[in-house]
Design a protein that fits this description.
The protein is of the alpha/beta class. Among the domains are: 40 residues, no CATH class; 114 residues. It has twelve helices and 38 strands. A hairpin with a 2-residue loop joins strand 3 and strand 4. The radius of gyration is 25 Å and the shape is globular. The chain starts with a strand and ends with a helix.
């Protein structure tokens, strides 16, 4: 079945396997099966809607609406709802059932749900089991971390996104099981590496890309099990140890020179269509130990899934984003959930099952429909308690109503989101202007809530050897955006230990540049540049890279 996306107008395909999945996860209420319809939006637009619910990085100073204390929050002070500090939000001084209400069948589900969602307190941030890591968001099991987002099991890390089980790393994106690393992107199992992309199990290397099990390499691309290489040429231990002395203390000029050398090397060599490891019948990128997963990105240990992003340990799930570290089972169209089962159209649900069209309901909830801000509850509709029998009958009536209004099966409308589109992660992956965002029904955050600095700023020395400790008391100005920023003491210690220069760009700009290095979470049809076989690739056909199918690439690499 071919359809046209009702939002962007792009044609997309619904396969027989897709229809079987929708049928398999369609729920039964009051003895009647309510079929989930084939989506009206293409995969990208569905993903865009989910991400428009999630603000990771835009943090504000505000007061807690319960205790009045000053807090850090992902909700700006002018938002039209109450915001509680995390400890107070998880506490027992309020009950989401107090906002309970009857469903009005003369109105749409969406307009009623917005009113409910705005009537319950929102958590300032979402973290769990974090120590000395207050300035983080969507994080689990963190220690001594600062401005780290969407991560788990990290320790002593600064300025990072989607890192798991990493220690002593900074300025990284999508990094796993790594230590003492700087500016790493989409890599795994690396130690003491700087400026690296799509690398696995590499050690003591600088400015490398698509390398595996390599060590002591500089400005190299596509190497496997090599050491003592510079620009893909083996020079031996003695020459390498002499050459590497000039890179002991990196400066901006040295870094730019290394980057240009890597471009020269990588531009002449083939790139693999996508990075898939130890997996069977899978498409996507950064896929590890998966089976029968398609359009899967940053996926590990998943099975029978499609259109999943940053969602490990899941099975029989479609359209799922940022559901880590414990994935989903038999779910459809969910985002930012943990250990969720048999659910649909949810956001920020931790540990639950049989939950539909609900947000921020946590701690072992089950059998909820259209709820917000509940904890340890079951058989609730619009935050109102029902018996099990009443619940099934009422949900059946509401779904029939949603089928008539065209809402059943669709994810939350943009206007349900608590944030302006430009505050959310959607704007990182699907950037829009204000006019474009408003056209699709999203909100926009106009007024800057940042504190404006009008004093003097400094340009840091090029060599960390010339940097004094009092730089942490100084204000720096980003050479790209003009934004002001500071260096914190643990950050300075890291630069000194790694012999790195103080960055001349603010943390946000560095993050956006890392996003540019990360392959897009999208597949294109193109041909292998060697055998001309039709392939699915993360490299768009118009890009300049030489792209091989996996079979041809492996022959070349090994």
């Amino acid at each position: 079945m071919n359809k046209v996306c009702k939002q962007c107008g792009v044609k997309f395909e619904i396969t027989d396997e897709d229809l079987k999945f929708y049928d398999k996860v369609s729920p039964v209420f009051a003895g009647k099966k309510f079929q989930i319809p084939a989506p009206n939006l293409c995969p990208d637009c569905r993903q865009q809607r989910r991400l428009a619910m999630r603000n990771e990085r835009k943090l504000y100073n505000r007061k807690c609406d319960l205790s009045g204390k000053q807090i850090i929050s992902m909700h700006s002070p002018d938002k039209p709802y109450k915001v509680y500090d995390q400890d107070e939000w998880w506490g027992d001084k309020w009950d989401g059932l107090d906002a309970g209400r009857d469903f009005d069948f003369s109105r749409t589900f969406t307009e009623q749900f917005i009113e409910l969602y705005n009537s319950v307190p929102h958590a300032s941030l979402f973290t769990n089991n974090v120590e000395n890591s207050y300035y983080t968001n969507f994080t689990l099991n963190q220690k001594n971390c600062y401005l780290v987002y969407g991560s788990g099991g990290a320790e002593d890390c600064i300025y990072a996104g989607f890192i798991t089980y990493c220690k002593d790393c900074m300025d990284c994106l999508c990094l796993t099981n790594s230590e003492l690393c700087y500016e790493g992107v989409a890599s795994d199992g690396c130690y003491s590496c700087k400026y690296f992309v799509n690398c696995r199990n590499c050690v003591d290397s600088i400015m490398i890309e698509d390398c595996q099990s390599c060590k002591y390499c500089i400005a190299c691309f596509g190497l496997r099990g090599k050491e003592y290489c510079v620009m893909n040429k083996f020079i031996g231990k003695e020459k390498y140890e002499e050459l590497v002395k000039q890179y002991e203390y990196l400066t901006p000029d040295l870094i730019n020179n290394l980057r240009e050398n890597l471009k020269k090397v990588s531009g002449k060599l083939p790139h693999v269509q996508s990075h898939i490891f130890a997996s069977e019948d899978c498409t996507g990128n950064a896929v590890f130990n998966c089976k029968n997963c398609h359009h899967a990105f940053e996926s590990r240990n998943d099975e029978d899934c499609k259109f999943i992003y940053f969602t490990p340990k899941s099975h029989n799930t479609y359209d799922c984003s940022f559901c880590s570290p414990f994935g989903t089972r038999f779910c459809y169209n969910v985002c930012s959930t943990v250990d969720l089962e048999s659910s649909m159209c949810c956001f920020q649900i931790w540990y639950g099952n049989n939950i539909y069209y609900s947000i921020e309901c946590n701690t072992n909830c089950e059998n909820l429909f259209g709820c917000a801000g509940l904890k340890k509850k079951k058989f609730c509709i619009f935050n109102k308690q029902y018996t099990e029998e009443e619940y099934g009958k009422m949900v059946a009536k509401i779904i029939e109503h949603m089928q008539k209004t065209g809402e059943w099966g669709e994810y939350f409308d943009f206007k349900v989101s608590s944030y302006g589109y430009n505050e959310t992660i959607a704007n990182e992956y699907y950037p829009l202007t204000k006019e474009q965002a408003l056209k699709i029904g999203a909100k926009w955050e106009d007024a800057s809530k940042d504190t404006v600095y009008h004093g003097d700023s400094i340009i840091p020395p090029e060599n960390i050897k010339d940097v004094k400790d009092d730089i942490c008391d100084q204000i720096l100005k980003c050479g790209v955006t003009g934004k002001h920023y500071k260096v914190i003491p643990p950050e300075l210690q890291f630069y000194k230990k790694m012999k790195l220069p103080i960055p001349r760009k603010c943390p946000d700009q560095r993050h956006f540049e890392r996003l540019e290095l990360h392959n897009p979470n999208k597949l294109w049809d193109r041909k292998c540049a060697k055998c001309e076989k039709e392939i699915k690739s993360v490299y768009a056909p118009e890009r300049p890279e030489i792209v091989y199918c996996e079979e041809c690439y492996l022959k070349e690499a090994y």
